Predict the structure.
Amino acid sequence: MAGKVFFSVSMSLDGFIAPESAEELMGQQSMELQRWIFPLRFFRENLKLGAGGEEGRDNDIVRETFERARARG
């Protein structure tokens, strides 16, 4: 059965995607790269990080991506 694969990745302007090792996976560089998502309303609510948060196009994109991939926190 054929299916769809969705791939979503963040990359810094200098090409940074992932750390050198698994031990550094949630290191400082990785956290800086992902910092933009934590204030978004959908992300906060979906992962039960508290009420409120920013709305707007970034929030819509995150919601649409989670819904398309059927991801749940």
